[in-house]
Amino acid sequence: MANDTNRFQAIISHCKEYGFIFPSSEIYDGLQAVYDYGQMGAELKKNIRDYWWKSMTQLNDNIVGIDAAIFMHPTTWKASGHVDNFNDPMIDNKDSKKRYRVDHLIEGHAESLKTAGKDAEADALLAAMDALLAKDDFAGLKQLIEDNKIKCAVSETCNWTDIRQFNLMFSTEFGSTVSSDAEDNKVYLRPETAQGIFVNFLNVQKTGRMKIPFGIAQVGKAFRNEIVARQFIFRMREFEQMEMQFFIRPGTQKEWYEKWKETRLNWHKSLGIPAEKYRFHDHVKLAHYADAACDIEFEFPMGFKELEGIHSRTDFDLKQHQEYSKKKQQYFDNDIDPATGKPYGNYIPYVIETSIGLDRMFLAVISQAYEEQDLSTEEKKDSRAVLKLPVKLAPIKLAVLPLTKKDGLPELAEQLMAECRPHFRCFYEEKDSIGKRYRRMDALGTPFCVTVDHQSLTDGTVTIRHRDSMEQERVKMSEVRELVMKAIC
Ligand code: GAP
User: Fold this and answer.
1) Which of 294, 394, 406, 413 has its Cα between 20 and 30 A from that of 165?
2) In this structure, are 228 and 341 located in the same domain?
3) Is 104 part of a structural domain of the chain?
4) pLDDT attached to residue 284
5) How far, in Å, is the centroid of ligand 1 from the Cα of 229?
């Protein structure tokens, strides 16, 4: 494939063509930065979600999962700091009226410098931007944009407004009464799932009799009014987060922060994705709640970008909720402090957070899996698009393909379907040539295809074809289920 832009476009087209992702309400020309998951995408997304959920909850005795509501009491967002601080600096082009997030505008320019081979210039620009962002120096940022003659992509002019802050939260109204004060009824669509965990900290701790250190995990929708929402499902206005808040004793945050960095990187690597596709990026400008933070970046087709955040959130959130709700958010720790010989006693726990976007993880998985292969020989031209998905994430695990539609082959194939269906997702297909059926399954990422042929009728064996190597072997039909089960685990 010519370059990464083409590769990214090919992945987006593949997602649409094979039922993974569609633009939202496409018959009305779509809605910017909102996407629907199709029949294959919903399965793949669910498998990623389940893999995360299992690794967090089932495999950690001290982490439990909850499912909090999207709507929360509006004071939640005052307390968490989102009403006052969840802003992005934006700049408008006066000629095109197009609005840009300042960091995205500068990053876009740096990318074009890199494409032109001016790597050092691009790096210097990004370093200058990071330093100015860290100081909230908006005048300096505007100067940087002007000095670098960064143009609007639409008007192609440098006629910029001053930089202003825009809040990213969506709001709506509760109830049917029209209030004279709209603020009375205003509720927000949560911009992060984490606050649903914080406000339930004591509910879970008490009812679950949890002892520190312990974690609460959650998967759910979050909403942000991203001004520049682009790059497919990388940055959306409605997306899903998989977050875990790990409650710890104050003073132990450095050690837990390092532990969770390592644990999360190992989770990514456990999917068989090469280690060099990941890197850590420490935050220069810390969010209002953090005393340390980093991203796990992944090499997407458009370069290394944030996939997951790991944040040491101190006791900021619980302290704020205690102050705003006037309800104590303390934990009594009866373990003995070796320094004093007495119990640690009451305190507001510190928190390490791991936060990953499910949709971003989907994009990472599918872009890593996508391959176009030239299979031409001297005799004929041939190629295939294949999704080399980790077996445990593949939407369909096994395709059962009778060679013909007659001679009792469909009936025998149905027997295999009946045996496997309760254990994993199978797919039955009798249309088209076997070659075409294999290609379609490759494109969906199905790791195993079984062909039931005339020999199967006499000796009970079938051909199993492996997606990645395309190798085929003859196995007993009675062993297929076990073979696939082993590969899923
Ligand atoms: N609770 C902390 C928090 O929300 P964040 O870094 O703003 O931190 C965490 O978001 C993760 O959520 C990101 O690493 C990313 O994977 C995902 N995410 C954030 N904004 C997103 C968006 N607009 N579209 C898709 N995923 C997004």
Assistant:
1) 294
2) yes
3) no
4) 83
5) 13
Give a yes or no: residue 124 inside a domain.
no
Q: Is the CB of 197 under 6 A from ligand 1?
A: no
Q: Is 241 in the pocket of ligand 1 (CB under 6 A)?
A: yes
- 119-134 and 138-147 are packed helices; what angle lies between their axes, rounded to 10 degrees? 160
> Residues 298-312: pLDDT tens digits?
999 999 999 999 999
Tokens linked to 397: 């695990």
354 lines ligand 1 (CB under 6 A): no
Q: Could you check whether the bond before residue 213 is cis, i.e. omega within 30 degrees of 0?
A: yes
Helices 119-134 and 102-115, axial angle in degrees (round to 10): 170
**What's the pLDDT tens digit per position in 322-334?**
999 999 999 999 9
pLDDT reported for residue 134: 80
The reply to whether ligand 1 has any atom less than 6 angstroms from the CB of 235 is yes
Tokens of 178: 């029209």
* Pair (243, 347) in one structural domain: yes
Considering the domain architecture, whether residues 335 and 420 belong to the same structural domain is answered as: no
What tokens were used for 52? 């995360």
The total domain count for the chain is 2
The enclosing domain of 473 has a CATH number of: 3.40.50.800
- Ligand 1 centroid to Cα of residue 124, in Å, is 26
340 and 426 belong to one structural domain: no
Q: Is 443 left (phi over 0), alpha (psi -120 to 50) or beta?
A: alpha
Rounded mean pLDDT of 68-81? 96
Range of the domain at 415: 396-488
Given 348, 366, 384, which residue is the final one in a domain?
Answer: 366
pLDDT in tens, 30-58: 998 899 999 999 999 999 999 999 999 99
355, 401: one domain? no
* Spacing, Cα 388 to ligand 1 middle (Å): 26
- pLDDT at residue 181, as a whole number: 59
Cα distance between residue 452 and residue 252, in whole Å: 59
Q: What is the CATH number of the domain that holds 357?
A: 3.30.930.10
Is there a single domain that holds both residue 358 and residue 409?
no
